[in-house]
Amino acid sequence: MCRWAAYRGDPIYLEELVSSPAHSLIEQSHCATRAKTATNGDGFGIAWYGDHPEPGRYRDILPAWSDCNLRSIARQIRSPLFLAHVRAATHGATRRDNCHPFVHGRWSFMHNGQISGFERIRRRMEGLLSDDLFHARTGSTDSELLFLLAIEFGLDADPSAAIASAIAIAETFSLEAGGEALVRFTAAASDGHALHAIRYATDNRPPTLYAAPLGNALSYCLVSEPLTDDVDRWMEIPNGSMVTIGDHGMVTANFRPSVDAGAALSMAVAV
Questions:
Q1: 217/235 Cα distance (integer angstroms)
Q2: CA distance 11 to 33
Q3: pTM for the whole thing?
Q4: What's residue 103's pLDDT?
């Protein structure tokens, strides 16, 4: 399983999540404590928002702990909204195109989890993409495909419904292909304004997700694992939840994909 951290609020240096804390994201890349595997060395990436609508991005296949540039970049870049990820590969080779975060236009996305039996349904899922989004796919991971499907299903208009449709498609196709569906999905996405995160699993064993204020009451970070030993500071986000951090702070709502995903499933029937 991967580890990730995201932030939205007053501008801070990336190092405040990526490298400075006692249990920073770089520390988690080789010593994760709340994951199946302690090591997340199959690459890393960061996406951050600044003066332009689209995010900047830096990714590499080196383990985060051994990249000579990451600590320097994290110390110098200051941003009000950023996503950072260290990878433990489940689907897709260790190459830069498979490292999170993924970006498309002004959207950025990163994921921790898996679709069991993904190779059996990958081609059918890709068939739901428009030509433009199909050609925008540069990697081979289930994560990037879920992201592009969410864009296809209206991520701009309704992030919760779009992601719910993408996951519902994965569950439906998995059931049809193998008689069972196992989807584990803890992910973050942003359009440069709001930061969204979802924690969900079909087997009630979703990857971990925690939230804590950072600075003032409207600035929050979301993390796979607490960055400090102050356990009372970190709130665990329940399974089946969507968190949105915006101008008014953090809001949590119920999240559950529906097998009746409207237009998305109508498209799926035709494939």
A1: 14
A2: 28
A3: 0.92
A4: 98
CA dihedral 124, 128, 132, 137 (to 10 degrees): -40
pLDDT number for residue 30: 67
End-to-end CA distance of the chain: 31
pLDDT of residue 47: 98
Is residue 195 within 8 Å of residue 5, measured between CB atoms? no
Q: Return the CATH class of domain 3-270.
A: alpha beta
- Asked, as a colleague might, if the bond just before 21 is cis with ω within 30 of 0, I would say no
93, amino acid identity:
A
* Contact (CB, 8 A) for 11 and 80: yes
pLDDT band at 25 (very low <50, low <70, confident <90, very high): confident
CA-wise closest residue to 221 among 1, 21, 2: 21
Whether 238 shows a pLDDT value over 90: the answer reads yes
Distance (Å, rounded) from C-alpha 207 to C-alpha 209?
7
Indicate the residue type of 217: A
Contacts 24+ apart (CB under 8 A), 176-179: 177/117, 177/120, 177/121, 178/117, 178/120
